[in-house]
Design brief:
Elements lengths: L5 E11 L3 E4 L11 E4 L3 E12 L2 E18 L4 H13 L1 H4 L4 E22 L4 E22 L3 E21 L5 E8 L5 E9 L13 H4 L7 E3 L5 E9 L4 E10 L19 E12 L2 E11 L17 E10 L7 E10 L16
Antiparallel strand pairs: 1-4, 2-3, 4-5, 5-6, 6-7, 7-8, 8-9, 8-10, 9-12, 10-11, 12-13, 13-14, 14-15, 15-16, 16-17
């Protein structure tokens, strides 16, 4: 509501390089080093629009509030290693020859959010906002394990949709201080599992217990609820000098109010949270730069139940950025961010993960 009257449009394009690594104990026929890597980049777009008129404003956004990542393990990963080891152990035929010729797995996950809402200025100190968000979520897992006598392939897609709402309040007690509070509701997502291809052991086979969709908990046609949790966010901004502005934020994800039926969420309690700080320096009307830091704490995720393709790990994020304004009507933003994830070790025979994720 501090904007001048008019239409504002913002487009984002984030190019994210990733180096994900699964380390597993070296076992016969499962990789040469027990070290599996994916460096597949991700491209995450965003679109925002605001129309402000006096005390009212309307806004619209298309974002990726969940997922947004893609991995491609050309030589397999912890999941394929665990499944392969289970096949080797269960089938003596595989022990008679060099068992594994190749392993691959590709996966992606993204939830597109379509947001529409409005804001109203009560007075120069207080303004309110609210709206709704529609989530369209998609996940895909495609993998193959090739043994000397045969090959097993699987292609699984998961889709879910849901609605949520949000409420916000903004307080500007002085010209230098701004406070913002946002509540986002939980979004119920019931994923339907669609097995597009499955050449792993089928009913009637003595090894049906090793059927891949069943082993990972996603048999064809089944449903599994995996909500996108709501959150409470608090932001603070302070203008220390005409050129220096500091900001801080705290977000608590209300995971204890979400419903998660997947095996990997068993034993999870409490809420994850993150805290962030940043500082912006304005050189002149055309240039300003910023630096920031964020710490993310993932609450009580058991390493044994994490997905090797997307493990939920504590992280420390550092970022720098610059804004160039060639005219008063244009802002061009450049940014660079590096995320450092904490490693965890799992000890399990569960085919969903294996030691050393």
């Amino acid at each position: 509501m501090a904007l001048e009257n008019g239409l504002y449009v913002k487009a984002d394009l984030l190019y994210i390089t990733k180096d994900y690594d699964n380390k597993v104990p070296t076992v016969a026929g499962v990789g040469e080093s027990g070290d599996f890597n994916s460096d597949e980049p991700s491209i995450v777009p965003g679109l925002f629009a605001v129309y402000k008129r006096n005390k009212w404003a309307g806004f619209f956004a298309v974002t990726i509030p969940g997922g947004g990542g893609e991995v491609d393990y050309e030589d397999g990963n912890a999941r394929t290693a665990a499944l392969s080891l289970a096949y080797i152990t269960a089938n003596p035929v595989f022990l008679a020859t060099p068992p594994i010729q190749a392993m691959t797995i590709e996966a992606n996950s993204f939830a597109i959010g379509y947001t529409i809402g409005g804001a109203y200025e009560i007075n120069p100190m207080f303004s309110l906002s609210g709206g709704v968000r529609y989530i369209d979520a998609h996940q895909k897992f495609k993998g193959e394990v090739t043994f000397t006598p045969q090959s097993y392939r699987v292609d699984i897609e998961r889709d879910a949709t849901g609605w949520g709402y949000f409420l916000g309040v903004n307080i500007t007690p002085t010209s230098k201080l701004n406070l913002g509070l946002l509540y986002q509701s939980n979004t119920e997502l019931d994923y339907k599992n669609d097995v597009k291809e499955d050449t792993s052991p089928q009913p009637g086979s003595p090894f049906y217990a090793l059927n891949i969709p069943n082993a990972v908990g996603w048999p064809d046609g089944s449903k599994e609820r995996e909500d996108l949790p709501g959150f409470i966010g608090l932001g603070l901004g302070y203008q220390f000098t005409p050129k220096i502005r500091g900001e801080a934020a705290y977000t608590r994800y209300l995971e204890s109010n979400a419903k998660w039926e997947g095996i990997r969420f068993s034993g999870k309690e409490g809420d994850s949270w993150e805290v962030a700080v940043s500082c912006t320096y304005t050189f002149n009307p055309k240039w300003r730069a910023s630096v920031g830091y964020m710490y993310t704490d993932i609450e009580d995720m058991e390493p044994e139940n994490m997905l090797p393709e997307a493990p939920e790990l504590d992280a420390r994020t550092f970022g720098i950025g610059a804004v160039y304004s060639p005219t008063p009507r244009w802002d061009i933003t450049f940014g660079y961010t590096n995320v450092y994830y904490d490693a965890v070790t799992a000890t399990t025979t569960n085919s969903r993960v294996v030691a050393g994720t």
